[in-house]
Please model this.
Amino acid sequence: MNDGLQQVKDWILKRHPEREDIPGDLDLIENRLIDSLSFVEFVFLLEQQCGRSIEMETLEVDAIRTLDAIEANFFGAEVG
Model:
């Protein structure tokens, strides 16, 4: 797992101490691991970890729905 993605995962786990791990395909939104109150903070963290700006107006929810999707959309080798 990429260090940036690990930081994102750790951030989520810190807010949900009842969880020991988050599977890559777990829906973070449906399982309320990312909610409307933490969403902006989450996107800011994601920007810091992936090293690029994320436009809230054009952000597709599916791009952040799972850790696998986050990895593919923000930390993949083809992302630049």
